[in-house]
Amino acid sequence: MVSALKKELAITYGSDVFTVKTLSYGSQTTDELLSSHIADQINQLQLNIILFEAPLKNDYQHLTLDETLENTDEMIHQLKDLKKTL
User: Fold this and answer.
1) 6/81 Cα distance (integer angstroms)
2) Cα(35)–Cα(67) distance, rounded to whole angstroms?
3) CA pair distance 8, 65, nearest whole angstrom
4) What is the mean pLDDT of the chain?
5) Contact 54, 30 (CB under 8 A)
6) 3-state secondary structure of 49
7) Does residue 28 surpass a pLDDT of 90?
8) Which of 4, 32, 69, 73 counts the highest number of beta carbons within 10 A?
């Protein structure tokens, strides 16, 4: 999926406009990501655009749906507070 995104960005905007960085959170849940201050870690990378995919499969095994939704909402707010394009 990342390679397809890189390819489409290069076709549309040229190869020197975007640099794509991928962060993987392995088996971490949204609860664990919030506890690890993931937004601060992302902020240190000085990114302009952030694409966030919630780890729903990981959450499903450990958290209730309400916890997942609450955590995902909190992560989105933290990422928005970085003043980046989300």
Assistant:
1) 26
2) 14
3) 34
4) 90
5) yes
6) strand
7) yes
8) 32
What pLDDT is recorded for position 82? 86
| Beta-bridge partners for 49 | 85
**Mean pLDDT of the 31-56 span:** 91
Is pLDDT above 70 for 86? no
At 28, list the tokens: 């971490």
What are the residues whose beta carbons fall under 8 Å from the beta carbon of 30, sequence distance 6 or more? 54, 55, 58, 59, 63, 67, 68, 71, 72, 75
Tokens of 26: 């392995």
> Which tokens is 8 given?
């489409």
Would you place residue 85 in the very low, low, confident or very high pLDDT band (cuts 50, 70, 90)? low
pTM for this predicted structure: 0.79
Asked if 30 contacts 68 with a C-beta cutoff of 8 angstroms, the reply is yes
User: What gap in Å lies between CA 65 and CA 71, rounded to an integer?
Assistant: 10
